[in-house]
Specification:
The protein is an alpha+beta fold and about 350 residues long. The protein has 9 helices and 7 strands. The strands form 2 sheets. Strands 2-4-5-7-6 form a 5-stranded mixed beta sheet, covered by helices on one side. The radius of gyration is 36 Å and the shape is rod-shaped. The protein starts with a helix and ends with a strand.
Length: about 350
């Protein structure tokens, strides 16, 4: 908020400083280096030129350039530039002829005669300089606003996509979880009650901790542990679940429901009712670098080389939107015939 508040004052200060510097050069530095006593009319002319240049700068930058060059219509701008140069020369000729300024300056500087009284090189160069700077400044402002507008549109699009992805993930998760608990009620009432309590804790997390764009790593890991515990309740004796999650983690903001689809896919596509199955879940942290690995048995009949459908696809999309150039996701069947997922993220403060 503070930088945006002071930005207009900063730009105004830079403009004032720039005009003061140009005025100093025109009114003091150049004339004083001549080491001569100049007539009063010379100082008046310098001030008139400075005022004309200021008017030219802002009229060109704020009115002419936005209505011509920015709208891909350069012909009127060229006409305007030519008329501006011609008008400045006309004003210079009128003033100097009425005040006899050229003759007075020639006498002071020791010249016999002013070289060309009909064309003022000094005014011509200053006019071109101001036209060039004001045009460049106006174009730069336009490009900056266009870039900011584009960035705002991309941010709005990203937020809309994230909202849609999150809306897809939550029902997808609850559908599978409720099915698991429903199956458990037939075999063990006590375990099903514990499962319902775990699910209610997870629902509370989803309702109150995932409303914003970020949650905390500790909450996300606790949510993941609850999910794994819930899946263990319905696991058969042929499934071996190994978790390697550190007890102590450095807490950082993270996108909610980012790790869950990777684990959910392992339970959904890597478990077989009649064959031995194994799921290994490992989490490693090195300061802001987070590595999450999931390894599970691969059953070709119930899965493919990229199982998970909505879950994994949404996870990839969310990573691209939220952690561009700050993540890597490798997934596929390894040499041992198991499906392996390795996610690396650089978290931010």
């Amino acid at each position: 908020m503070a930088p945006n508040f002071f930005r207009p004052y900063l730009f105004a200060g830079l403009h004032i400083l720039g005009w003061l510097l140009l005025g100093f050069i025109m009114l003091f530095y150049i004339p004083l280096t001549w080491n001569v006593v100049l007539p009063q009319v010379f100082w008046l002319w310098q001030m008139i030129v400075l005022v004309l240049l200021i008017m030219l700068f802002y009229s060109n930058a704020k009115i002419i350039v936005p209505k011509t060059i920015i709208k891909d219509n350069t012909s009127p701008f060229l006409v305007w530039a030519f008329l501006t140069i011609f008008t400045m020369q006309l004003i210079a000729y009128f003033f100097t002829s009425q005040t006899d300024l050229h003759t007075k300056i020639s006498i002071v500087l020791g010249f016999k005669k002013y070289r060309n009284p009909y064309f003022d090189n000094y005014v011509f160069m200053l006019t071109l300089l101001v036209l060039g700077i004001s045009t460049s400044w106006s174009m730069l402002q336009y490009w900056q606003k266009a870039a900011q507008h584009k960035q705002k549109l991309e941010q709005d699009k990203t937020m809309a996509e994230l909202a849609m992805l999150k809306a897809q993930i939550n029902p997808h998760f609850f559908f599978n979880s409720l099915n698991s608990i429903y199956s458990l009620t037939y075999s063990n009432i006590e375990d099903s009650r514990n499962a319902l309590h775990t699910l209610s804790r997870m629902m509370r997390y989803l309702l109150y901790s995932t409303e914003g764009e970020r949650t905390t790593l500790l909450k996300e890991v606790e949510f993941l542990k609850d999910f794994i515990a819930l899946m263990k309740l319905r696991a058969n004796s042929k499934l071996n679940i190994i978790t390697e999650i550190p007890e102590k983690l450095h807490d950082y903001p993270i996108v909610p429901m980012l790790l869950l689809p990777l684990v959910e896919n392992a339970f959904k596509h890597g478990v077989n009712a009649t064959e031995k199955s194994e799921i290994i879940i490992a989490l490693k942290q090195n300061d802001t670098s987070l590595t999450f690995e999931v390894l599970n048995t691969f059953f070709e009949k119930t899965s493919n080389t990229e199982p998970g459908g909505i879950g994994l696809t949404n996870t990839k999309r969310r990573l691209q939107l939220i952690y561009p150039h700050k993540h890597s996701l490798i997934c596929g069947v390894n040499k041992e015939g198991k499906y392996e997922v390795e996610l690396q993220i650089t978290l931010e403060q």
